[in-house]
Amino acid sequence: MANERKLGLFSAIIMGLSGAIGFEIFVLLNYAYFDLAGPSMISALFFCGIINLITMLSYSELSAAIPEVGGEYTYTKVAFGGIISFMAGCLRWLASVFGGALAAIVFVNQLGVLFSVFDLPIQLVLVNASLLIVGLVVILIFLSVRGVNEATTLIVGAFLAIFVIFLAMSLGYTLAPQNIVPEASGNSIVVFFAATAYLFPMFVGMRALVAGAPQIKNPGKNVPRALMITTVLLTVVYFAVAFVAVGVVPVTTPITAESPPLLNLAAKEIMGPIGAILFALAGMFASVSSVGTAMSVQSSILGGMSRDGYLPNVLLKAHKRFGTRYVAIIASSLFVIFFGTSGAVVFLGYAASFGSLLVFALVNLSLIQLRRKMPRLDRPFKAPLYPLTPLAGIVMSVLLLTFPVILRDVNAESALLSSLGMVAIVLVTYYLRMVKREVDFNRLRVAVGGISFGAGVTLIVLTPVIAPPSLSIIMVLVGLVSIVAGILNILVSTRKID
pTM for the whole thing? Predict the structure, then answer.
């Protein structure tokens, strides 16, 4: 409704920045720098900005043409409907769960950094990490159910101020990071793309701007402008901060499990103890804010899919006093606790990236489908260089998903297999629910196809765990055949249903 559109361009930019600037910079730089790409991590970060900018062109067109609640889920629903929109919703939910779990871990890590600055026993934090994560999530469940909102403008302003001070104080240093551009060798390129995939979640939070499109005045102009400005600002800020951090902290710096992250090390080097305390507190506040935002996003996604009949109606149940979807909030929070207490930082980073990249690919596909399906749809903004930009977004998303696995990164493989296994489970859930709603031959065939696909993926995921080496190849082949058979059943039957 028009009277609900109260936010202008500046507020839209703040909305995008508040969704993106958060805990990720405190943790994702670390692995990409010390374990993967070294100084070329800076170029990988810049490349993330370019990829994000390409896909934001698709987001801009879709959000301007369909400025409704739901974001990616709504776009894919209008473009494809059915299984594709359900998959987009589930992937967005999964990425939010993994991101929320990673944020909870970062909160504990930054608390440990704060303890070390004051010479307090850091082991006290490490030993009780799981308990601290559970306590944090439980407190945020209580606040989310009560509908407590965060002061996002103040948080964004504080972060930008801290980064500006950090960059200003670095001017007194001679910064000359070596080899920030990857070498032309095959392995260096693979490592570069793997680092890009791992760093990518630092940008995806700006999709909060798309979710807030119904609140923005003149969305046909302001949403695309805000998306472009936010992307450029993020890329410049992230690049500058990473350049300084790499310039003052050599890649040969000895790192242990108790060592502060790269950004905290750089802050202490440039700003002294005050900087160490300031960045640790900033990391903690960012983590709390991100976990709270993740809970809100997750309940919104589950509520939307429940409303459309894809998930049980109980997830729509609202609190009698506060009006919040407390069942959906609690259900999602249990997953955040489960993955958060695992402490698997690198795994969660790749898993969050996996879900986000697949969603980006689906958004670009939705743009292509809507251009073909609804050519007369009012489009206040059109993605330039169509269809090159959405195709480039799809290709780059797939490449970033592939390269970490080519590198045989154990964390990437585990994240990929686990994510595929969860996707298989939700596919089976979807098709079984569709059969329950309307039983006929074609829908039954679709359900069997979904189960076959899910069983094939699950078999491949479990093979390294349950199968001896002599049977591994056979089990993988059986899984692949099952996946192909499932896809064929789905494609043939959904055409008949449509």
Answer: 0.77
